[in-house]
Amino acid sequence: MDEKFDPFLAEWNSFVKNPNFNLIEKCLKFSQILEYPDLNIDEYINKISRIGKSLKESISDVKNPTYLISILNEHLFENLGFSGDDEDYYNPKNNFLNEVIDKKIGLPITISIIYVEIAKFIGLELKVVGFPRHVLVKYNEEMILDPFYDGRLLDVDDLQDILDTNFGGEVEFKPEFLDEINNEQIIIRLTRNLKNSYVQSFVYDKALRCTNMILSIDPESPEEIRDKGILEERLQKPEIALKYLNKYLEINPNAEDVDFILELIRSIKTKN
After folding, report:
1. Are strands 144-146 and 152-154 parallel, antiparallel or unpaired?
2. How confident is the model at residue 3 (pLDDT cuts 50, 70, 90)?
3. Which domains does the chain have, with CATH numbers?
4. What is the mean pLDDT of the chain?
5. Total-model pTM
């Protein structure tokens, strides 16, 4: 899709795809370029490091993963007071790692990112899991943890309960829901979360920026092509909106929301 060159997106794309930066650095860069231009990234890396080092000092020589996870949970959630934000879940600030580090509350994805990073200080290699609408963490296939709720251990019934809460009982648990996601997928999911928070707050220009950020990493994402069309229409750019909505129908002709998109295209053409 031929859009004019955007230096912001070019900088973002090269940073996200640069293997020399770790996930924490990429998440902090995300905060810096979107909302906090004066953010000192090194300062927050040091804050994470201090949390990790104080945890390391508190453990014995036992290397049992169950013991290490219990100490990690105690340190992060009981001693330091980190928790999931149930009360103001859709607050856009919950997507910014600097805010989560300072306020100690966040979303499943941001709490999980910190949890996995702190675990490394005690030799625990945990993986971020792309569970539908609720990011989780795993040590292995049997040990699934929910950092949003104080690192509690989950069984299959718990996983189904999370799905029932988020999908009204219409989605059955599948083992692939527990697949690990890589750093790029985590960043995309974080950006998508933020986009949804901005849409909930009717801040469409910032939501569109998030969509453009995702498309710069994954240019053929049907969901983002559709959302760019919808957001451009809300920002009164009918020509761009039509281009992306039609593109969405081309690549996804059997989508569940085809009727809605066709109606939107009709209304844009009628108005213009």
Report:
1. antiparallel
2. low
3. 7-178 (3.10.620), 183-271 (1.25.40.10)
4. 93
5. 0.91
